[in-house]
Structure formats: C-alpha cells, structure tokens
Amino acid sequence: MQRATSLARLRSATTPFDIIIIGGGATGLGAAVDAAARGHSVALLECDDFAKGTSSRSTKLVHGGVRYLRQGNISLVLEALRERGHLTRNAPHLVHDLAFVIPNYHWWEGPFYGVGMKVYDQLAGKLGLAPSRTLSREETIAQIPTIETDHLTGGVIYHDGQFDDSRLAINLAQTATDLGATVANHCAVTGLLKDNATGIITGVRAHDEETGDTFELRGRAVINATGVFVDAIRHHDDPAARTLVAVSQGIHLVLPKKFLPGNAAIMIPKTADGRVLFAVPWHDRVVVGTTDTPMSTHALEPRALDEECAFVMEHARKYLATDPTDDDVLSVFAGQRPLVKTGDSANTATLSRDHTIVVSESGLITITGGKWTTYRKMAEDVIDHAETIAGLDARPCPTKDLQIHGWTNTPATEKNLRPYGTDAAAITALIAADPALATLLHTRLSYQHAEVIWHARHEMALAVEDVLARRTRALLLDAKASIEAAPEVARLLAGELGRDEAWQRAQIAAYTALARGYVYTDPASRGR
Fold it and tell me: Which CATH entry fits the domain spanning 71-163+246-341: 3.30.9.10, 3.30.70.580, 3.40.50.300, 3.30.200.20?
C-alpha cells in the first residue's frame, strides 16, 4: 500500500469510479473493503490519516454491549455479538478473547449479573466465546489481584473481544487496496461536483495536503463516512440540511500494568452517569474509561475535560486496592462519538447507538452512528444503498468470511510484531538485512526502528504522528516517552521520504505540541 501509487491512479482516472468514499475511519474503510470485494471500482479519500479521529480512540473492545442489553436494545446487542464473532475469525492477529470480571459488593449482585450474562451468552449463539459463570470471593481476587476487597462478596466472569483499533484500520486500508480499491490519506475533499442540469452529485473536488495540488474525481455514488464531521460534508451538499449528529465525548486514562497485573479486565456495570466503566489490560498497560459527555462542537484533536479525568480517576481509585496517583497516568486520550439525533434530548447517553443512512436529494449517501464492532454490517448496508442509488449491479456481500490483511493463527514470536500478522515476517527480514533496525525507539516502548521503515514503505505513514499515534500506539501507551522518541522517528521517516532537516525539526515540534495534550500531569497543555 503506497500513497504515491494511489495518488497517481486518482489523478489519472479517466472514467468515473463506481463509488467514492469520504472518510478513512472504521466506517469508510469498511465500506471500501465491502465495495471492492464486490468488484466495484472504489476511491477513498481521508483528509488527515486513517483512523485519525474516533476510530483510534476507542476502549479497544469488540463487544456486544452489556449496557445496551440492560436498556433492552436486544437487536443492537444481537447484531454486535454476531459481528464480534465474524471479526474474531476474520482478524485473529488483532482480535482476541478477553475475560471480564464484574466485582460484586452486595449479595444480590451475583445472581442479578449472573443471569444477565447468561442471556448475553445465549444471544451470541454459535459465534459466542467462553461461557460466563459466577465467582466466589476468592476466585474474584485470583482473577483480579488488585481489586478492592472491602465488602467484596464475589464476582461474575464473562468474555468479550479486544482489539487494536488503529492497527485494524490500517489493515482494512491494506485489504481494500489488495482488492483493487484506491485509498489515500492526507487528501481532503473540499467540495462536491454536481450535474448542472439535474443537481445530482457526480464526484468530488480534492486537495492533496502533502503537495498542495487539487484535482477532481468523478463517481457514480459518493458516500459521506466522516463520523462526527458528516454534517460539514452534508452542508457542502445542502447548506440548509438539518444537523444529523450530536457529539458525545469519551475519555480514557492509561495506567501502568501493575494496577491490573492479570489477564482479566474489570467491568463496572453502572456508574454515576449511567455508563459502563472498564479497566482493561492492553499492550502491557491498563486502559480505564469511559465517559459520556455531551459536546457542543466537534474536534479533530479533542481534549479531555477536567471533570472527565476526575470521574475516571475517582472510579479507578474506588475499585482498585492501590489508588493510582496523577503521576501514575501515562496518557489521557479523548474520542468523540457521532450519535444520531432522535429528539431534543441533551443527554447523549439516551441517543441512538445504531447506525443511520441518509440519502439527500442530490444523491449524497451519509452513514453515521454505530460503533467499531459493527463496522462490517454498516459497510454492507451502505454499499447496498450505493448500488441502488448509482444503478450499479447488485452483488452479494462477501465480507462475513473475508480474511483481513495480516490474517494468521500463528502469532509472531516477537510480541511487538504480533499486531502485523503475516507482515511481521517482512519486518523481521528488514532486521535480518540491517541488524541496527532492531534498536528500540525508546527504552519504555517496545517498538523497533524497522517498524518505522515498514510504516513509511507499506502503510502510508507520512508524519511522526502517523507512526507514534496510530501505526504504533506509543502516544497512548506513554505520551512522554513518545515525545522523547519523536526525533528518532523523524530521522527514520526523513530517510525514507526524502525529507531534509528543516522538515524533521518541524515534525518534532508539531508532534511535541500535540502529544503534550496527552500528558496527564500537564493540564495547561490540554487546553484547560
């Protein structure tokens, strides 16, 4: 997957693409995979980097949604559990079974949550993971040695999926490319093209953020899959279009592994704001979150609010025997959910988590809502619509059993290379050819120089942020360490991309300014 090749194909296109997709997050990339797998010609444009927004800022779970079960939204839970099963099979190098423990502090919680999780198991059917069961007090402590034991009566254990969100996004981009789609990051859609006589959308106007060049693409169908930014694209089409999305922000704190040393996660089924809260082991760290904060505006780089941080830290201290301090927090990150408005409710927790597809009078197809777990079904639905709108041949969706790029059941020996799946062998070959590439980017991070070379050559990494935030997860795992690693990443990228020292200095400065917003102990830099 090489950007220069993609841009050349886009600029030289002489016939309309069947489908043009705006947005390179989970929804847009899933749609590109689906459409290309059906044999359609596909172009996808992302204004920044793949998964730059919400799709790299999740709780890292592939799950049915225990909270939605409690709310009675059985159809959403059923769909998500089916999709969890498909994704576990289609990307085993990135998705795995994770045990969750619900600690019980009242006598009634064991039977109450135990019954609920049995229903959850049954809804998953043949695509289920390991069965749930109740735990004694001793078994609960054995699973979660650092759990708060005062008044602990026992627990319930159940199983869901875990994954690496931005790595899956990169693999989806690679899968789409393998299937013949043309995808490009750092390429913004700046306008929509319309037929003068009919007003029907016929394509997009694009801007290459790297070179400054502009060009036009023609397409038979245009899909707006830009998450919290869908209304901006809809207003390009129709300035009077009703706002479709309400923005909800969720934040996560990242703690050292010592606060959750086992292999199981903690699930708190109900907090003060009605959300489920998780403490999840991930890449030898612990991710704690999330919140549900209504926001009046959306942002490409959202920042955690003081009250959100206090809320998550309060619950971490409540359920962990050793209270984490502010100095223990390795990173804090925020993501914004596109929730579909269903009324005038100011409480985003009550808004729809289902996905919605809207087609404008000019033919712009907008898809929003949903969640990572259901990205494949969202893609199937929106490509079905695109075939109808564009008059394309209706073709069956093949993605339920489509293996995603990197698929393997044999993980790499090197732990840091396991998320690359089958590509790990090529990175190992780089090191064999040049042993210096085995050097770590930082002593507190497990990433090697060879990975940066791979990112530049085969994963469209153009900036230090692309590498440290999304192709590796350094920014989320240890924000300060990632800042210290930035100069080396800039040097390695410059060598691959033909950049000079001035470019390196600019990249280091830009990344440092961004990453400071993830450092929990530096509130001023988070915009507060």
Answer: 3.30.9.10
The Cα 300–Cα 336 span in angstroms is: 9
Report the relative pairing of strands 154-162 and 133-135 from DSSP bridges. antiparallel
**415-526 has which fold?**
Helicase, Ruva Protein; domain 3 (1.10.8)
Coil/strand/helix, residue 384: helix
Task: Read off the tokens for 164.
Answer: 């690496």
> 290: cis peptide before it, omega within 30°?
yes
pLDDT for 147 beyond 80: yes
* Tens of pLDDT, residues 213-252: 999 999 999 999 999 999 999 999 999 999 999 999 999 9
The pLDDT value given to residue 349: 46
pTM > 0.90: yes
How many other β-carbons are positioned within 10 Å of the β-carbon of residue 149?
14
Give the three-class secondary structure for 289: strand
Tokens linked to 395: 């073709």
pLDDT tens digits for 266-280?
998 877 767 789 999
* Tens digits of residue pLDDT in 418-453: 999 999 999 999 999 999 999 999 999 999 999 999
The CATH homologous superfamily for domain 3-54+166-244+349-401 is FAD/NAD(P)-binding domain (3.50.50.60)
| CA 151 to mean position of chain CA atoms | 37
